[in-house]
Design goal:
The chain is built from three helices and five strands; from the N terminus they run βββαααββ. By secondary structure, the chain is α+β, with helices and mostly antiparallel strands. It has one domain (2-6, 17-84).
C-alpha cells in the first residue's frame, strides 16, 4: 500500500465540488463481475458500501494519507482518488 504523489493541482477555493473515485483491480461485488469503478461523495460513504477488508485500509488511514487533500491511495485491492466535479456555470439574466 502506498500514496501516489499529488498532482500539480492545488485544492480549489471553497465551493468547488469533488467526488472520490474507487477503482478496484478485481470485482468487489460477485453479482456484478464487470463493475470495478465507483464514485462517492465522501470517504466515509465508501465504507457504507464496502468493508475495510474489501478496500484494504481503514477510513482513518485514508485521512492520514491526505486523500482529501489530493493524494491518492494505491493499495493491493483498489486505488482511491479525489476528482473535481466539472459543471457549466449558469448564465443569470
Amino acid at each position: 500500500m502506498g500514496v501516489i504523489a499529488k498532482s500539480g493541482a492545488k485544492p480549489k477555493e471553497t465551493g468547488d465540488r469533488f467526488v472520490y473515485s474507487v477503482v478496484f483491480f478485481g470485482a468487489p461485488i460477485p453479482d456484478k463481475p464487470r463493475q470495478k469503478f465507483f464514485l462517492f461523495s465522501s470517504l466515509a460513504a465508501i465504507y457504507e458500501v464496502f468493508s475495510v477488508e474489501q478496500i484494504g485500509c481503514t477510513l482513518g488511514h485514508l485521512y492520514n494519507l491526505k486523500v482529501p487533500d489530493g493524494s491518492a491511495f494505491a493499495g493491493k485491492r483498489c486505488i482511491i482518488k479525489r476528482e473535481p466535479v466539472v459543471s457549466k456555470r449558469q448564465k443569470r439574466l
